[in-house]
Design a protein that fits this description.
The protein is an alpha+beta fold. The chain contains eleven helices and seven strands. It has three domains: 3-85, no CATH class; 118-175; 180-329, Histidine kinase-like ATPase, C-terminal domain (Heat Shock Protein 90, 2-Layer Sandwich).
């Protein structure tokens, strides 16, 4: 707080004081009080007022300086009332009490929201597990009654299963830390599991998988990383080009291991690349009828942030796309 700001705030009080001094001086002059006495009294009065203003200014300045220092140092600004001292001047006390009441109200609302969110999340997870039961049953029935029609139905059920899995991981993405277990995992094993899982689509779409140089161990959670790899494979299949290939390989740099998933598909237009990880963004490819939801890469990005895995995307339109996942090497 600057002294000029303080004086500006006190301008009405100063004006009233000056008017009072003028009127009282005139009154004392009229009643024949000595001029020197009048000057002495008024100077004494003004000096006491000025001293009071100065002391009040420094008291408030010290408080507000500490307040803003504490406020700027906080990551969560809403916690300011938990660390600031209660001021000793009346305006500050009133604002402090209001902030305390407002903070309690906000915390109550946030607590209620959090509880509702947890209930909703648990409901979604329960619902998904319930839905997976008839999906699994349907697949078993199809397996025992294979024909052209049931195989077509199976393809659609696989799509439903994929979307259900997306919803499950999206629901869990805000609390990944409660469900993941970071440990030493084999990179090649995770890739092979997802290639095998998507083998039917890869074969049906006549895509050639290329797997090389994946003999590394990294620190991560296999279940979550396999889901991320699966989402990337889905995109490569969905936006495949002629003589389609999906290449999986890795490179080591220092204590980091990077997994590259590269395809020679449609690629992404340059104006869309910066937005591919946004929720619901489908880009020009998605608008051309590829049934894109814009959720897959958004979930991948969100999970990677929770797992401390860097994810980067490089693409050239009509040439293909490469996604790079960077892990810490397990020793």
């Amino acid at each position: 707080m600057k002294f000029s700001q303080y004086i500006k705030d006190k301008v009405i009080s100063i004006f009233i004081i000056l008017i009072t001094c003028t009127i009282s001086s005139l009154f004392m002059y009229i009643v024949k009080i000595n001029i020197n006495s009048i000057v002495f009294v008024q100077l004494l009065f003004l000096m006491s007022i000025i001293l009071g203003f100065i002391l009040d200014f420094f008291k408030k300045k010290q408080y507000y300086d500490e307040f803003f220092t504490d406020f700027n140092s906080l990551d969560e600004k809403s916690h300011i009332t938990e660390i600031i001292k209660k001021p000793k001047f009346i305006e500050g006390k009133i604002l402090y009490d209001i902030l305390k009441i407002e903070n309690k109200y906000t915390n109550d609302i946030m607590s209620e929201y959090k509880n509702n969110f947890i209930d909703y999340q648990q409901y979604i997870e329960t619902w998904i597990h319930e839905v997976k039961t008839p999906i699994a049953t349907s697949k078993l029935l199809i397996e025992n009654n294979k024909n052209i029609i049931t195989l077509s139905i199976e393809e659609e059920i696989d799509k439903i299963d994929g979307y259900v899995e997306q919803v499950l991981y999206l629901a869990k993405s805000d609390s990944v830390e409660k469900d993941y277990h970071i440990k030493k995992v084999y990179l090649k094993s995770m890739v092979m599991n997802e290639v095998k899982k998507h083998s039917k689509e890869i074969i049906n779409e006549n895509i050639k998988p290329i797997i090389r140089n994946l003999d590394f161990y990294v620190l991560s959670d296999a279940k979550w990383i396999e889901f991320i790899i699966g989402q990337i494979i889905n995109n490569s299949i969905k936006y495949k080009g002629n003589k389609a290939e999906i290449e999986f390989y890795s490179e080591k740099e220092g204590n980091k291991v990077s997994l590259y998933i590269k395809d020679n598909g449609l690629g992404i237009q340059s104006q869309d690349i910066s937005r591919v990880f946004e929720k619901g963004f489908t880009g020009s490819n998605g608008r051309k009828g590829k049934n894109s939801t814009g959720i897959g890469l958004y979930i991948c990005k969100k999970l990677c942030e929770k797992l401390d895995v860097d994810i980067n995307l490089y693409s050239e339109f009509e040439r293909g796309t490469t996604i790079k996942l960077t892990f810490t090497e397990a020793v």
